[in-house]
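Handout, section 4.2: multi-component inputs.
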Amino acid sequence: MQFKHTRLDRFILVLNNILLTLGVLLVAVPLIYVVMASFMEPTALLNKGISFNLSDYSVDGYKLILSNAAMLRGFGNALFYSAAFAFVTVAISVFAGFPLSVEGFVGHKFFMTVFVITMFFGGGLIPTFLVIKHLHMLNTVWAVIIPGAVNVWNIILARTFFKGIPKELSEAAKMDGASELRIFFNIVLPLSKPIMFVLGLYAFVGQWNSFFDAMIYLENAKLFPLQLVLRSILIQNQVSPEMITDRAQVAELKRLSEIIKYASIVISSLPLLVMYPFFQKYFEKGVMVGSLK
Amino acid sequence: MKKNLDYIKKNRFLYLLMAPAFVLTIVFKYLPMYGVIIAFKDFSYRKGIMGSDWVGFKYFSKFLYAPNFELIFLNTLKLSIYGLILGFPVPILLALMLNQLRKVGAKKNIQLMLYAPNFISVLVIVGMVFIFLSPTGPINKLIIFFSGHPVNFMSEPGYFRPIYILSGIWQGAGWASIIYVAALAGVDPELHNAATIDGASLLQRIRKIDLPTIKPVMAIVFILSAGGIMAIGFEKAFLMQTALNVTTSEILPTYVYKVGLKSGDYSYSAAIGLFNSVINVILLVFVNFVVKKLNEGEGLY
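Output:
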């Protein structure tokens, strides 16, 4: 149903559209700029900036990056860390969430208290670092995957999800003589794919974009995830000489470093930006259950 | 007691499932909490946590009387308070604006675009900031075109906070608006229809219908972000810090990192970290108390 708007209302609605368009441009322009710059010929980019002349474009930046061992290894490592971390986090969350959802579970209050306290208090950087050091986990992949794997929010979300599964299902199974073990694996888990998917997606994205744990716990450059490789390129301005194949002159390095930065931004962000429109509704669902429950 | 033991015996499996989360929490969350006592000791790795000598509040007073204490403390406060004040309203405004869009398709596409930066890593965002704001970057090309003098943004302490906060809004505001958009979608359209018939203008309806609807959500988001005031995005400040902007970019968490992991002064660093957390908890309790007063008893807890 449409009502007649007052003139002021119509003015506000028009203004609203203009402002939203500006907002979208504000977000889109820098992203488009980066993508366009990454495809430019380095000298043209340096001298003219973004141009719309087709002859100024090349894929040199991508060629350099894709021939760079550190970058490729970082990509592979990030993929592995993210997948492994997502798997471990989801497993731990549903494993811990299930007992907490069982009615009459002895120790419910104790376990919940133990978990929830860690949401408000923590040891901080140095004591945590010392624990990892004591366990001889420094410079191993475990330091990146394990310490952050217990996420109290995820456990609470899993528990809430399990509680929403109709009781009749498990009661009927119990009648038939099924143990809690069977109920969990044969009834609850198959029904929990949506929550496992959402939790896994979040864990994957989070790990893909993180660098700090890897930075403080890893020393061996062979173990570095993509973000750490990016850090040396983007933040510390260290384009490694191995990237410039021969005659690595300073000028050449400088000429190419800009293009390498743009291309590496695209390479690292592309996987998430490409998959995100397909998963948008799951991400939104994640925000909603995470905040309202 | 006997009954409980029987239950545990009978349902061993449930406790087995619980074990990984429980053990990892004890090891990686509670052991570090215990480890905090090194803030009150002269920790030496050779003697261990137990064996090191007690020194009481030595490291706390060392920090409180340190010449750079005031600077770091105020930097932390300013960065977070400005960030909160400037960043908090933007997602709300965005949501109210998106809510006015009638075409569902357009709304979806705009949201898709506005959410995108959230999926770019903080590191890449900072990298983009460095590229765009570098003396030869696109922003400075524009500045030169219009006025002539390039600005060296990243080495000017005065620019650190605006850049930090604005880039944060650029990255996060769209995503943060989701929860308000969802709350607004729950408003009964009949309410708006009735109000329009009664002659309410658009702004009146926003003020009397939309805003009250999202008020509880606003309160909770505000408490949570205020509670995290001292725990602000350490990673971003750390990445944006340059030798030249350190007078504004040094905040408690970056200092903890420097003192602890760079200089290996474990006890001192742990003391500063603990100081930071204690203030955090106090702020959370305080803000929750104030919001409860303003929000008819509705707080986080």
